[in-house]
Amino acid sequence: MEDYNMKLQQLLDPQIYKILPKDPTNKFLLKTKNLIKYSSIPDTIKPNVPLRPIVSTIGSPTYGLSKYLTRLLQPHIGQTTHHIKNSDHFIERMKNFKLEEEDILVSFDVISLFTKVPLMETLKYIKEIFPKDVSILFHHCLTTTYFQWNKQFFEQVDGVAMGNPLSPVIANFYMEKFESIALESAVLKPKIWYRYVDDTFVIWNHGLDSLHFFLKHLNNIHPNIQFTMECEINGRLPFLDILISKTDSLNLSFSVYRKPTHTDRYLNKLSNHHPCQKIGVIKTLFDRAKKKVSDPTHLDEELQHLRMSLQANGYSLLEINKVFSSKPKQLREKLPHLGMVFLPYIGGVTDKIGRILEKNNIKTIFIPTKKISEFLRSPKDPLDPLTASGVYKILCSCGLVYIGTTKRSFLTRRKEHMRFCRLNQPEKSAIAEHALNNLSHDVLFHDMKILSRTSNFYVRLQREAIEIYKHPNNINRQFDNICLNKTWHLVLKNVRVIDNNI
Fold first, then answer.
1. How far apart are CA 53 and CA 156, in angstroms?
2. pLDDT: which is higher, 317 or 371
3. Burial environment of residue 140 by CB neighbours within 10 A (0 to 12, 13 to 18, 19 or more)
4. Does residue 83 surpass a pLDDT of 50?
5. How would you class 436 by CB atoms within 10 Å of its CB: exposed for 0-12, middle for 13-18, buried for 19 or more?
6. Strands lying side by side in the sheet with 17-20
7. Confidence class of residue 468 from pLDDT cuts 50, 70 and 90?
8. Percent of the chain beyond pLDDT 70?
9. φ and ψ at 486, to 5 degrees?
10. Mean pLDDT of the chain
11. If residue 229 lies in a helix (H) or strand (E), which one and from where to where?
């Protein structure tokens, strides 16, 4: 943990991050709300195992807005001839390419692209294609990246955060502008330039000496954007998850590439997962081999490697070969699912429920009842539970309870209830009314119980209704207005009985 903290401290470049005096969440929440009204992981393959800065933005004030803006910007990228969607797309474009004797296979990688994207320049490009109100939203989402570490708050002042749904699209958008300038201004141009975000595959036909001048040219365009270069070794070059090889006939062949740190660990057969998920592991690996390996001899080698790896993960040779030899199923036209249900996987119980739901065209996704993360200590700073939103309970010394829900933090809502009591405003909340009408009672505001943490509006309402039903000794006003499906009543009645017996 000490080594982890030391490496993370080294990442906090003052040119990219600045320390904030306090938590800015409330300020950004207010700003996000006003703007909407106005606008209508460790890198194990590198020396010393450096860390990649990840800022998880799930549940942050701008998370939903960032996802919306991602959808707006997505159609504006990927239209150039240099763009590739994934390794399958790359193979499709290169499988019939004929090399010349002097061609050199090269890859270029941008160093820490996300944190180096020049924000102001990128926003200038965005203004050229979007109206002012939308551009303001982009500016807001990209300049309100903050996080907590070691009990301090930091704000990212340049670049984009890994963990923000908008970041990959923004990085791609900027790199398209960058590569256009780089290729147009290059004295000697590559024969092929295909880029996937920060990884670029190049075929260079001007000799090795001039290749180093081209690298220097790329690194002189913008001080933030610096490339590293890797040349082919013995006619072979890894790119994304494939290994590209030159053939004697000057064609290219492809095979699956595994990094030196790859362990061949997959979902173990003994793991408590639904059988279809385990078969899915075998099928996914088999399909990847079929798509990415171009030479039949290499395909046999890859399948043999997979057999050994899967057997080491507990799968029998019989079930492996059964998947490998199965014929592709003919695609049948399927009706869209009526809904989706997530169920904990309990063998012999929830899988039967899943089959019933599937017959009624409801998709079932099984999740494990326990996760490894539950047994490991998180390196992240623990968040104060009172900073979350959701459903809560406040008790009174008389035995009655108040069930409430809040879209803001529990702490903010608790302060409001206490202020209503202090300012003699019983109409503001039921708990304030109860406290003011019963001055001898002791309302335990500081012993607020968190019943559920969620930012989803409908989930909060449903959970509040359930908790009110579970607590008949409540002092809530709005229970008659909350519709709780009658299916819940029998279940909740039994829950009440269990709670009373404990």
1. 11
2. 317
3. buried
4. yes
5. middle
6. 17-20, 152-156, 146-149
7. confident
8. 79
9. -60, -20
10. 83
11. strand 227-231
Locate tokens 């147009």: which residue? 184
Residues 6+ positions from 344 with CB-CB distance below 8 Å: 350, 366, 367, 368, 369
- CB-CB contact of 146 with 156 (8 Å): yes
Residue 48 has pLDDT above 60, yes or no: no
Q: Which 3 state secondary structure label does DSSP give 209?
A: helix
| The pLDDT of residue 319 | 93
Residue 114 and residue 169 in contact, taking contact as beta carbons nearer than 8 Å: no
3-class secondary-structure state, position 194: strand
**Half-sphere exposure in the Cβ direction for 142 (13 Å, CA):** 28
Mention every residue, 6+ apart, whose C-beta is less than 8 A from residue 262. Answer: none
- pLDDT single digits (tens) 382-418: 667 787 889 999 999 999 999 999 988 898 999 999 9
Q: What is the pLDDT of residue 122?
A: 94
> Rounded distance, CA 148 to CA 380, Å?
9
pLDDT, tens digit, for every residue of 292-311? 998 888 899 999 999 999 99
In this prediction the pTM is: 0.72
3-state secondary structure of 367: strand
CA distances from 380 to 4, 110, 156, 289 (A): 11, 27, 17, 37
pLDDT of res. 349: 83
Assess whether pLDDT exceeds 50 at residue 31.
no
Helix 296-312, helix 275-292: angle, nearest 10: 160
What is the token pair recorded at 193? 């330039």
Q: How far apart are CA 69 and CA 222, in angstroms?
A: 26
Pick the CATH number of 385-501 from 3.40.1440.10, 1.20.1560.10, 3.30.450.40, 3.40.630.30: 3.40.1440.10
The answer to whether the CB of 455 falls within 8 A of the CB of 405 is no
Q: Is 362 helix (H, G, I), strand (E, B) or coil?
A: strand
Checking DSSP bridges between strand 362-367 and strand 339-344, what pairing results, if any? parallel
Q: Residue 204 pairs with which residues in a beta bridge?
A: 104
Tell me the C-alpha to C-alpha distance, in Å, between residue 77 and each of 73, 172, 204, 239, 378: 7, 7, 25, 21, 36
Q: Is the pLDDT of residue 221 over 90?
A: yes
186 touches 214 (CB < 8 A): yes
pLDDT of residue 472: 85
